[in-house]
Amino acid sequence: MSHPTRRVFLWASTNPTLREKLPQTRVMQRAVRRFMPGETMDEALTAAAEYEERGIGTLYTRLGENLTALPEAQAVADHYATLLDEIRERSVSGEISVKPTQLGLDLDPDATFRHLDRLATHAEGTGSYLWIDMESSAYVDATLDLYRRLKSHHDRVGICLQAYLRRTAKDVESLLPLNPAVRLVKGAYDEPRRLAYTDAREVDASYLALSVTMLRERNVRLGLGTHDVRLIVQLANHAAALGLGPDAFEVQMLYGIRTDELLRLRREGYRCQALIAYGASWYPWYLRRLAERPANVAFVARQMIPW
Ligand code: FDA
Questions:
Q1: Is 106 a known active-site residue?
Q2: Is the CB of 165 inside a 6 Å radius of any atom of ligand 1?
């Protein structure tokens, strides 16, 4: 999407008035269903069945970010703990993915660490895995710090890194000694050119360079969090040149986006996961999805036509 249009959507995602009013409109409520099976944990877990049948694992995230009161973080952590129990109960190969600001990072980083620590322990105990999402650039240092602390005594924890940030090559380098798990994404926030590549070709070049670096090290659980099949094929070619098969990395896509491609990659032998988002606080997340592709806006417009 052209840069100005993308910025309008990213601006709207953080505007308090729109954030309050737009989610109440029927049009938005209908349109978001394309990317979200429902608002409840049960709907998310039910949607997993069709992926599981085809050998595709699932990741879950309960939407919500930037909490304003610390007790809410306790409720969010309790929710994720219940989700981990449900994942085990239903024998789904599910993992969880959480945003630090949803666990109170804006208010008390130590409390956020304690919540994550508890969830990492619970994820290990239930055979699952804890992923930490990456939010806007202001949170990168604090999020990396949380990850380093967690990784020092938990194995089954991963972090998301954003290829559009100029700093990420250095961050990868600093994480490599930890045998990290990294989900590499292009990046979804509105960042200044000073901090981030804003040209799509630069972002793609950074994505490929970073993923090749991690592949070469062979000690990274590498998840490609992208729908860009061209990049995935390029990395697969690098893997082949290194004598590695299609299982050298995982492909992680969002529920409802390019599912046909995810299924095709699975049939070709790639390890695949679908990230299923759910919950009532979907507005900013959904606006970031609209910012990613003009066709999604046309989709919302079509929902306004009552036939
Ligand atoms: P790109 O935008 O170039 O799209 C490649 C192709 O995929 C497009 O041509 C289009 O066909 C299709 N496509 C992409 N987005 C689409 C959409 N919304 N609707 C329809 N088609 C679409 N970001 C972040 O900053 N922090 C995070 O923690 C995460 N976590 C995360 C987890 C997972 C599993 C995924 C897949 C993505 C994220 N992201 C994220 C979002 C990520 O940063 C990025 O904004 C989106 O994935 C879109 O970029 P692509 O890599 O798909 O490439």
A1: no
A2: no
User: Is the pLDDT score of 24 beyond 90?
Assistant: no
| Number of domains comprising the chain | 1
Question: Which residue range(s) make up the domain with 207?
Answer: 37-281
Task: State if pTM tops 0.85.
Answer: yes
Q: Is residue 19 part of a domain?
A: no
In contact, 161 and 224? CB cutoff 8 Å? no
pLDDT single digits (tens) 142-199: 999 999 999 999 999 999 999 999 999 999 999 999 999 999 999 999 899 999 999 9
What does the DSSP assignment read for 162-229?
Answer: ETTBTTHHHHHHHHGGG--EEEEE---S---TTTB--SHHHHHHHHHHHHHHHHHHS--EEEEE---H
Read off the CATH number of the domain in which 63 is found.
3.20.20.220
Query: Where residue 298 falls among pLDDT bands split at 50, 70, 90?
Result: low
d(CA 205, ligand 1 centre) in Å: 16
Is residue 299 situated within a structural domain?
no
Is residue 136 one of the residues assigned to a domain?
A: yes
Q: Of 47, 66, 71, 69, which Cα lies nearest the Cα of 58?
A: 47
What distance in angstroms lies between residue 71's CA and the mean position of ligand 1's atoms? 31
The pick from 197, 231, 253, 293 for probing ligand 1's pocket by mutation, whose C-beta has the most ligand atoms within 8 angstroms, reads 293
Residue burial 50-84, b: 16+ Cβ < 10 Å; e: rest: ebbeeebbbbbbbbbbbbeeeeebeebbeebbebb
Residue nearest to atom 13 of ligand 1 (CA): 227
Confirm whether 4 is domain-assigned: no
